[in-house]
Amino acid sequence: MNYHILREFADSWVLLGMFVFFFGVIVWAIRPGSNKEHRDVANSIFRNEDKPANSEEART
Q: Is Oxidoreductase tagged as a keyword (predicted)?
């Protein structure tokens, strides 16, 4: 294989494959029912937090 054949392959099929992959990721991210999952992940850092840390706990 020479550079010209690889370049034509990359400009056609690989570009199409990358577009399909990108479109698939976008559709997967906004699929119906994913809002609950996104909300859960966004709030996971607050899951075990009962109260704010006081100044002595923050120093240690």
A: yes
Give the distance from CA 27 to its chain's centroid.
Answer: 12
Q: State how far Cα 3 lies from the chain centre.
A: 33
What per-residue confidence (pLDDT) applies to 41? Answer: 86
What rounded mean pLDDT belongs to the chain?
82
Residue 19 is predicted with a pLDDT of: 94
Structure tokens at 23: 């479109």
- The DSSP 8-state label assigned to residue 51 in this structure reads S
Question: Whose CA is closest to 25, among 12, 60, 34?
Answer: 34
